[in-house]
Amino acid sequence: MDLEQDHPAAGFPPTAPRYQDWIAWLNRDLIWLFVLRILRSISQGYLGIILPLYLAALGYGAVALGTLLAASAIVAAAVSTAAGILADRFGRRKLLVVISLMAAVGGFGFAMARSFTALVIFAAVGSIGRGGALAGGAWGPFFPAVQALVAEHTDDFNRTRVFGAFSFVGVTAAAAGTLLAGLPALLRHTAPELLSYRILFLLAGALGLAMALAVLPIAENQAANTPTRGNNLSGAIDPEDAPRRLGLSPQSWRLVMRFMITNATNGLAVGMLGPMVVYWFYRRYGAGPAQLAEVFFVLNLLSALPYLIAGRVALAFGSVRSVVITRAVSALLLFVVVLMPTFLWAAAIYGVRMLFNMISIPVRQSYLMGVIPRAERSSASGFANFPSQVMSAAGPYLAGVFMQHLYLSLPLEFAAAVQMLNTGLYWIFFRNILPPEEAAIAAPPNGSAQA
Fold first, then answer.
1. I need a labelling partner for 387 at 20 to 30 A (CA). Which of 3, 52, 443, 450 fits?
2. CA–CA gap between residue 349 and residue 49 (Å, rounded)
3. Which residues are CB-neighbours of 95 under 8 A, at least 6 positions away?
4. Is pLDDT at 230 greater than 50 in this prediction?
5. Whole-angstrom Cα distance, residue 199 to residue 451?
6. Which of 7-11, 254-258, 415-419 has the lowest mean pLDDT?
7. Distance CA 281, CA 275 (A)
8. What is the number of other CB atoms lying within 10 angstroms of the CB of residue 431?
């Protein structure tokens, strides 16, 4: 089915690649952004598994793990927001190099650290433990600059598809990374357990250096990062040359505030999960590094598949409706996970839950870029995601307290309830705001816009 024929008023630019052309949107800059995503996701894939196990091997409990993750999240929130504001003004590529080098310092330092204070500092600097074992679709502090660069190097009708492809590649790379988490089990007869964990943290440092090198060839159009009279067909944002405060126009601020509220609730739920889920599997079912590595490898591979259809789902049902439906199902399945009697059953239900949740990730990423003017995208991303980062900092600490002093499964149940709240807020705030590609399709055939 050809969207250009089915929607003659959709407003496809004559030179834009058709939606059906699987890789027509791929270009040199996107390829290097793919490389950056792969390197980042490999380290995320295994760090989310070995971090809680490494701390447990050192004798630390759930509260210590939550404290470390909270500190990491707070610093990541500050870096992410600063990167969003500064990237639009001084260049997104420069900020990505700096953040990549911070990841390298964090990995090397964490491997060498011996005190808990040092572990917390280097985890914060390198954003170690951000996202968890199924976090290939997440970027951490890289997100505002990368999100804007991805949108810059594609067009409106392929934007969600490109974000879906990035998430697919990220999760697939993270799946490969999870296999590295089995290294301590493989070396248990030849090397001390702590040494094998530290080797993996050193590898994370090396991957950080490789990320900095991968950023250098990416082109950036600085001239495009200035306010222009745009063509946002939804009418939700009017990118006139209005005075901007902290990089955003008054119209953009009204939308970004809505994103900040919804992302705050989402961040709290995400903070309850991530590495805390790995710790829950470890405490609830006694799952070790080898079991966790195998299961999360499979879950990562399976959870990558929904990303390939995210663009089609968004165009078929609408971005906001797609997010709401998939998030609601995901939250309901999280309630079911805690009822499972065995590790394999719990992991299987958690995997199905991730299939629905993953569809919403690139759709939400693309939607924000679609309703915000190009010159303000990094700033908008930084501010919109700041509450998520802050609340995700509180999440691990609260989860640790819940697990250690109340009961083990409470964080998962609490996260499910908060995600249901997030789903309702998202629908209330955005159901009437269309990104350009959906507004074009919804436009009357005669081209006259609805008031």
1. 52
2. 19
3. 83, 86, 87, 145
4. no
5. 61
6. 7-11
7. 10
8. 12
Residue 130: name the closest of 43, 202, 245, 238 by CA: 43
The string of pLDDT tens digits covering residues 379-427 is: 787 788 778 777 877 777 788 788 778 888 888 888 899 999 999 999 9
Contacts with 38 (C-beta within 8 Å, 6 or more apart), sequence order: 169, 170, 173
Crossing angle of the two packed helices 193-215 and 92-112, in degrees rounded to 10? 170
For residue 152, the SS3 value is helix
Residue with tokens 């990368």: 146
Which residue shows structure tokens 């590094």?
A: 289
Whole-model pTM above 0.85? no
Of 399, 395, 362, 433, the C-alpha closest to 147 is 362
Give 245's strand partners.
Answer: 248
- Please state the rounded mean pLDDT for residues 252-262: 88
> What 3-state class would DSSP assign to 255?
helix
Res 421: pLDDT: 93
CA distances from residue 32 to 29, 149, 183, 316 in whole angstroms, order as listed: 5, 11, 29, 30
Alpha carbons 363 and 324: distance in angstroms, whole number: 11
Structure tokens that stand for 182 in this block? 């089995």
Q: Where along the chain do its domains lie?
A: 26-218+244-440
**Among candidates 139, 147, 149, 146, which has minimal Cα distance to 219?**
149
Residues 6+ away with beta carbon under 8 Å from 431: 320, 321
More confident residue, 358 or 345: 345
Domain 26-218+244-440 class? mainly alpha
Instruction: Give me the pLDDT at residue 19, please.
Output: 43
DSSP labels, 324-392: HHHHHHHHHHHHHHTT-SSHHHHHHHHHHHHHHHHHHHHHHHHHHHHHS-GGGHHHHHHHHHHHHHHHH
Contacts of 51-56 with C-beta under 8 Å, sequence gap 24+, read: 51/123, 51/128, 51/129, 51/275, 52/275, 52/276, 52/278, 52/279, 52/282, 53/184, 53/197, 53/278, 53/282, 53/289, 53/292, 54/194, 54/197, 55/119, 56/279, 56/282
Residue type, position 174, single letter: A
Neighbours of 59 (CB within 10 A): 7
Structure tokens at 439: 């507004």
Average pLDDT, the chain: 77
